[in-house]
Amino acid sequence: MNITDMLIQMAQTSDASQPSLFPFPLGLHLTFVCIGAIFFAYRFFVQKRPYQLIMAIAIAASLIIWISDNSKTLFYGVGIAEGVLILAALISSFIFKAPAEAAETASKAAASDANSDENKSTEE
Questions:
Q1: DSSP labels, 62-84
Q2: Are 88 and 34 in contact (CB under 8 A)?
Q3: Stretch (H or E) spanning 12
């Protein structure tokens, strides 16, 4: 079998012939989803960052693909929804990171102002 025959054989094989989408069974997928969703939900309750909650939802939403085995509409719909959720998590991680850093620099600036005011009062 040469490369041309291999490419022709791959082109003739339909996507629907694969019995499942994932290389592991539903039970293992469910286990991974539970671990990931619990982790991100816990981190959200500790740190209160929105991207963690969005990622917990995105991980849990990946189970929707198991509803139907051969529906390309469901397959692409879940893919688009997952992409939107991951993009929203990425954007929210940048947006909500900036106010935390701004508050941190403001507190450092206030502390340095307080120190400089103390130094001025002791010099007089």
A1: GGGGGS-SS-HHHHHHHHHHHHH
A2: no
A3: helix 3-12
pTM above 0.70, yes or no: no
| Secondary structure of residue 23 in the 3-state scheme | coil
* 103: its two tokens: 């508050």
Which two structure tokens, joined as six digits, stand for 90?
């990425």
pLDDT digits (tens, 9 = 90+) for 68-110: 777 888 889 989 999 999 999 999 988 887 666 666 777 777 7
Report d(CA 75, CA 18) in Å as an integer.
Answer: 14
Q: At 12, phi and psi to the nearest 5?
A: -80, -15
Q: Which residue has the higher pLDDT, 27 or 57?
A: 57
CA 124 to CA 119: how far, in whole Å? 9
**For 34-45, what is each residue's pLDDT tens digit?**
999 999 999 999
In three-state secondary structure terms, 70 is coil
Query: Quick one: pLDDT at residue 69?
Result: 72
Q: Which residues contact 75 (CB under 8 A, 6 or more apart)?
A: 21, 65
